[in-house]
Amino acid sequence: MPARIRPYLRTDYDRGTYPVPYDPDHLFAGGVTGNGEYLFRIADPATDSSRWRIAVNEARGPVWFTHDGTVTSFLVSHRAPSGEGGRPAGWWDGS
After folding, report:
1. N-terminal to C-terminal alpha carbon distance within the chain
2. Which of 13, 59, 85, 88 is deepest in the core (most CB within 10 A)?
3. Number of C-alpha atoms within 13 angstroms, CB side, residue 51?
4. pLDDT at 6 exceeding the cut of 70
5. Mean per-residue pLDDT for 19-30?
6. How many Cβ atoms from other residues are within 10 Å of residue 86's Cβ?
7. In the chain, what is the greatest distance between 2 CA atoms, to the nearest angstrom?
8. Which helix or strand (DSSP H or E) is residue 71 part of?
9. Tens-digit pLDDT profile for residues 55-95
10. What is the DSSP secondary-structure string of 33-58?
11. How confident is the model at residue 53 (pLDDT cuts 50, 70, 90)?
């Protein structure tokens, strides 16, 4: 998956088309939602994976969200309450 996505991210990053906030060479796709948002590991610094953060792009817009934590902490902190659909409050506000 990263090999297919990276050229698009690189083009946007180099042209400034959409504000890709990280060098695409440091973004490794790890998942995708049904709406088309991609979850990336930010592999920076490359030699210390314990410090890698999470980035999620907005599928139909230029907004990116960054989570300073592990994949597990991201999933736990951004899940919808049990029995409710849709995105949880604060999904794109950086909380």
Report:
1. 28
2. 13
3. 6
4. yes
5. 89
6. 7
7. 42
8. helix 71-77
9. 998 888 888 889 998 888 888 886 756 545 555 455 554 44
10. -TTS-EEEEE--STT-GGG-EEEEE-
11. very high
